[in-house]
Amino acid sequence: DGFVRVDRDYVAQAAELARAGGCKHFVLQSSRGANPRSHFLYLRVKGEVENLVQAVGFDRCTILRPAVLLCKRQESRPAEWMAQQFLGVVARVFPTAYSVPVETVARAMVASVLQPGKGKVEVLENGAIHELGKA
Question: Which GO terms describe its biological process (predicted)?
Answer without folding.
Answer: import into nucleus
